Amino acid sequence: MAGYSTYIDLIRPLIDGKEIISTGMTKEVARVEAAIEQARAGKSCAIVSSGDPGIYAMAGLVFETCKIKGIEIMPPDSDPRAADDSNILRLEVVPGIPALCAGAALLGAPLTHDFAAISLSDLLTPWELIEKRLEAAAGADFVIVLYNPKSKKRNWQLGKAREIILRHRDKNTPVGIVSRAMREEQHIEIVTLDNMHTAEVDMQTTVFIGNSTSIAYMDFMYTPRGYAKKYEIQS
Amino acid sequence: MAGYSTYIDLIRPLIDGKEIISTGMTKEVARVEAAIEQARAGKSCAIVSSGDPGIYAMAGLVFETCKIKGIEIMPPDSDPRAADDSNILRLEVVPGIPALCAGAALLGAPLTHDFAAISLSDLLTPWELIEKRLEAAAGADFVIVLYNPKSKKRNWQLGKAREIILRHRDKNTPVGIVSRAMREEQHIEIVTLDNMHTAEVDMQTTVFIGNSTSIAYMDFMYTPRGYAKKYEIQS
Do residues A190 and A226 touch, judged by C-beta distance below 8 A? Predict the structure, then answer.
């Protein structure tokens, strides 16, 4: 069992008696290498992420590491003849509920039409590319989900994203802010695009920016799919 | 309990003894109206979707219908003083694992960087807008997830999407095709963008088009986050 210490702590009661490789944030490479080593030594090893392991999480790094090291990998259920070949690593990704689904559910239904997910972290991605994606998503009227909107060291990216999106979208566009969805200290807020940068946001926040048709109604926000126009729901 | 008959059938063993409102496809509006009517009459009623109810699914229509009918709605845990007001409808969206996570998990990790989800169904969305979104997402190097790629009546949209994306992306870009993820008759295939339109695709298929850095390796595909470049994983 390998994972970022915060996530390991969340599931502590479920992993009693298991061998645990717990490392701090930014130690992702070391964590994955240690897990692969365990698995190649014949143990079965799980790497734990929060949300879905395939969305801005650890699954990609596992494949990347295997490719770089030239490790042969296979899905768990393929070719039973290879089952005894200890050089082959069996890899299974178990999907979960990503922050974009948990957050959307708490807000109402902001993602029932086309959307783009963009991370504002420029630690591993050049800011120019992030800006290009914000511009493209805003211009083509995608609902936009922002991951990693802000950290202690990165505090200007969300304001810059707001500026870019405001060039294409009304300042009253509803924006949903969800922090720690379905965990302790969960926080939900619906604001307008115009004052999005003043909302309470940190590294555990996901930001949902509506498209041109998204609506704030009572304590919820949603994006219509187009049924009402087509089938004329009676009021 | 309300739902499209196919989904109701999938959970039949779990809903024994429940009152069931089952309707066919394209009867979404009638289904939601019937469910709201039940709930307003004092019963608790669940509307069932496959995957996540907030991603191209029924949650949006529930909010849309309440807004049009002027029904007052509240999250389940808010303001206990209003609990006895039978005019207020308590609405809770329970998130699930969307096809984009289930499919990505089976393919490896195609979604570990920024991605855009686009439905190719022009039943409720003008094709011009879909084309604009394909163009924008391809131009800004998003991984692209296509929902509703093809149906019996809509057979040219996937070919057109391929054409648009090929203007921006290499013809050998890996494309993952997943049908009926984690259900009976599951089908997984990794092809190239160039021959994406010849793959076996239907309404239960999700298509994952890699960005410029996505890689096909063994029987998997993944999108690197950038760790290898930054931290130099040793081969």
Answer: no
By CB atoms closer than 10 A (0-12, 13-18, 19+), residue A18 is exposed
- CB-closest option in A75, A142, A233 to B68: A233
CA distance A145 to chain B (A): 10
Q: Is A208 on the interface with B (CB under 8 A)?
A: no
pLDDT in tens, A134-162: 999 999 999 999 999 999 889 999 999 99
Q: Is B189 on the interface with A (CB under 8 A)?
A: no
Nearest C-alpha neighbor of A191 from the set A213, A204, A208? A208
Number of Cβ atoms within 10 Å of the Cβ of B89: 17
* Chain B 21-60, residues with CB within 8 Å of chain A CB atoms: 28-29, 33, 52-57, 59-60
Is the CB of A93 less than 8 angstroms away from the CB of B116?
A: no
Query: Residues A10-56: pLDDT tens digits?
Result: 888 888 888 888 776 668 888 899 999 999 998 889 999 889 999 99
Hunting for tokens 């003894």 — which residue is that? B17
Under 8 Å CB-to-CB from A93, ≥6 apart: which residues? A53, A54, A59, B104, B105, B106, B108, B109
- Name the 3-class secondary structure at B163: helix
What ipTM was predicted for this assembly? 0.94
**pTM to 2 decimal places:** 0.94
